[in-house]
Amino acid sequence: MPRPAFQLYNTMTRAVGPIVPLDPAGKRVTLYVCGPTIYDYAHIGNFRTYVAGDLLRRALKHFDYQVDHVMQFTDVDDKTIRGSREKNLPLREYTAIYREAFLKDAKELNIQVAERTPNATEHIPAMIALIQKLVDKKAAYVSDDGSVYFRINAFPKYGCLCHLDLANLMTGARVSQDEYEKEGVGDFVLWKKWVAADGDVGWDSPWGKGRPGWHIECSALSMEHLGSQIDIHGGGTDLRFPHHENEIAQSEAATGLPFVRHWFHVEHLLVDGQKMSKSLRNMYTVRDVLQRGYSGRELRYALLSGANYAKNLNFTWQGMDDARTALARIDEWHKRIKAAATGATAADESAASLNLFQSIDEAIAQDLNINDLLGTLFTWIRTSNKALDEGTLTPPQALAYLQAWDRLDAILGLGEVAVAIPPEVQTLIDERAAARQAKNFAKSDELRKAIEALGWKVKDTAKGQELSKS
Ligand code: AMP
Ligand code: ZN
Predict the structure, then answer these.
(1) Quick one: 433 and 389 in the same domain?
(2) Is the pLDDT higher at 417 or at 452?
């Protein structure tokens, strides 16, 4: 049976449609996801977007695309400059702390890091060159204060992503014109002239010392690493306007080519139904969640499973407990099905077994339908557990489930984690093995209790003691 084509919602067209790569061979897909501003630890809302981006990346690979993925780190803006000055650290040293922290948290969440993760400040010459091109084309102008602005009325398509009415924006511009150094209210900064608050942060340019605006970073880095046009560009929903709208304007005004084929936006994570904010004290980092005794894997599950990426997701601690329960169920099943597959040399190829693969394809091909994907998994678990209870599942059938799980998990990224056994628990386990060998069951029971007191559960099976976290 032919595999279904991978379909994704496109914010630009407002429709679900197939990915049609620019690559004439149809193999390579270029993906740019706007990266974090590294002035502080990223919160779990930011990571909802990056986990969804990771799901997309893994889904593309599942459909055999070669993914070329770039994500920048924004290491120069008002917040990074302010933070570094408050800490009395050079900008580079200050942002390196949060770059490392982000990568560590991403690893906890089993996010596959993009092929390239440049810092914005490593590419200032590319940004200057792009701004110069816009100035030459009269799509940008130098204001009286020495900053450079993009002129949005030089780009009639402005507003195409968010379906904004440029005429209305222009009226607003005329009304407020006097109050602005820029010509129009919608005009946005490409190059910011140096001011005293910038301290020693600044680069020389044809317009004097200054620094790039945020929007130009993504256009310049995307073009530098992936070419003038890319297949998929993503980020959180708040980036649609003005950030992505501005990226389109700058890029297309400079190259005359459509910048992006497919726009991917992730809706926001709420906490207990509310927007995350410091004043509500509901802004959690990955570290906060780990400190409460949850694992990165449980957080990944909660961020993935609560809702499709295109819908708001409500984070609750109950949701974290539910994630723990769901993962325990998956792990228990995985262990059982693995044992049942022992001895099978080839997987069963009956229609029912092949259908396991088909069902993964169908769920993920429909705009990353996570509910269907997890629904499929829990149906497998119910059906195969029942067959195992009844003794009707053959080893080749169990192997088919196991292989299907491996393919599914390459997308979900949940994996079965090898839990490190603490040395004190291992000592008790070894003593218990010796006691059982000597048929000293009273001692074996005592040791079981001691193991349980340390938070572990031991089960006696034909293959020996099986240990799990209680
Ligand atoms: P920033 O570091 O502020 O540029 O944000 C990094 C990414 O996180 C961007 O793609 C934002 O759109 C995204 N983001 C910010 N807040 C949330 C949230 N509450 N839920 C999901 N994504 C978010
Ligand atoms: Zn961006």
Answers:
(1) no
(2) 452
Q: What range defines the domain where residue 45 resides?
A: 7-266
Q: Which residues surround ligand 2, an ion (CB under 5 A)?
A: 34, 218
State the total domains in the chain.
3
pLDDT digits (tens, 9 = 90+) for 121-151: 999 999 999 999 999 999 999 998 899 999 9
CATH number for 188: 3.40.50.620
Cα distance between residue 254 and residue 25, in whole Å? 27
**Rounded Cα–Cα distance for residues 225 and 212 (Å):** 18
- Residue 307 domain flag: yes
* Closest ligand 1 atom, residue 313 Cα: 20
CA distance 215 to 203: 17
Q: For 69-79, how does the pLDDT look when each residue is reduced to its tens digit (9 = 90+)?
A: 999 999 999 99
Within a domain: residue 2?
A: no
Quote the percentage of the chain above a pLDDT of 90: 84
Residues 463 and 389 in one domain: no
Ligand showing the shortest atom-to-Cα distance for residue 214: 2
Q: Is residue 1 included in any domain, yes or no? A: no
Same domain, 61 and 165: yes
The bound ligand whose nearest atom lies closest to the alpha carbon of 238 is: 1
Starting at the edge strand found earlier in the chain, the sheet holding 188-193 runs 140-142, 148-150, 188-193, 210-212
Range 155-168 average pLDDT: 86
Phi, psi of 422 (to 5 degrees): -65, 145
Among protein residues, the one whose CA lies closest to atom 9 of ligand 1 = 236
Token pair for 450: 């001691």
In this structure, are 205 and 304 located in the same domain?
Answer: no
User: pLDDT tens, 200-221?
Assistant: 999 999 999 999 999 999 999 9
Which listed ligand is nearest to 36 at the C-alpha? 1
pLDDT of residue 174: 40
> Distance between the two ends of the chain, CA-based, in angstroms?
44
User: What is the amino acid identity at position 3?
Assistant: R
Residue nearest to atom 17 of ligand 1 (CA): 45
Query: Which residues approach ligand 1 with their CB closer than 6 A?
Result: 34, 36-37, 45-46, 48-49, 235-236, 238-239, 266, 268-269, 276
- 424 CA to centre of ligand 1 in angstroms: 42
Distance 237 CA to ligand 1 centre (A): 8
Cβ neighbour number for residue 346 with a 10 Å cutoff = 9
pLDDT of residue 460: 85
- 188-to-75, 183, 207, 259 alpha-carbon distances in Å: 19, 10, 16, 18
